[in-house]
Amino acid sequence: MYTAIAISSPNIAFIKYWGDRDPLLHIPASGSISMNLDGLYSRTQVTFDPSLAADQLTLNGHTTTGAQLVRVSNLLERVRQIAGLRQYASVASNNNFPMGAGIASSASAFAALSLAASTAAGLSLNESELSRLARTGSGSACRSIPAGFVEWQAGDSDASSYGFSIAPPDYWDLIDCIAIVSQMHKPTGSSEGHTLADSSPLQAARLEGAARRLELCRKAILERDFALLTEVVEQDCNLMHAVMMTSAPPLLYWQPATLAVMHAVVDWRQDGLPVCYTIDAGPNVHVLCPSQHTSQVTDRLPKIPGVERILTAHPGGAARLLESPISAPQFTDP
Ligand code: DP6
Predict the structure, then answer these.
(1) pTM of the shown model
(2) 247 C-alpha to center of ligand 1: Å?
(3) Residue 189: its pLDDT value, please?
């Protein structure tokens, strides 16, 4: 019986993943770039146990079955195949950030699961192998394996589609101030959303410019150019939401308070504050700024009607093991 514990941070996409070339393997239609969010974690323990008759999942202390267990089990099955292992596993995962907080927990959860499960199975996968494994659980999870600012090269196969670090966390002290405007569960999750992307007449145009935006975002990060980052991040966000709003059926994730924060950010910028917004598949707004301006942003955000709370995060590190694999005590049946 072997067990391992791993932790991983969620990430916020600067250049978005929306739409798959291969939905089963999560090979994306275009590449993406993100920043890991320090201080927010999924902590996942995986134990392969010969006495189990099926995989088991506990999420934030609650036994979980159904679609979530199937998704976890599919990833465990990949690990079993690579390791030549037959045992089922028990998985216990906890997030230190609130579930309904509008921060995608699937990225950190599947990154931590991939590292813990592969280690517990006796494998020592390198970073790109781990990133590929995490991608099969949730696309954006492949970006939570490497540290700091991470690019997911789209690739065209399982072997060529993975995340790698463009710059370490301490390269650029940006802050993500997450304005939570609703903690409600979103009606259409991203997995279903990806399948609708091609039904929008705008997706082709979005994809056509993706390589250029990736290049500009990479340059903005490497040159610590916040004005360029602002331009490309907001445009990419608006393009993704334009696709969402024009797909069939349409997906409208914004609430009135979402738009209020977007307008405020643009106004503050006109007054000289370096700040920009980006929004994932939900109503909450990620407001980015260089760290020296954090207090100006966190003082102003709560004054916008509809903003319920604010979470802040610096660039975060790579997924990591909490302990090296340990052998749990062996129990022999009497
Ligand atoms: C809007 O990675 O959550 O956050 O692969 O189905 O788990 P699955 O999708 P997921 O999609 C993320 C969508 C996004 C943009 C992004 O993070 O790039």
Answers:
(1) 0.94
(2) 16
(3) 84
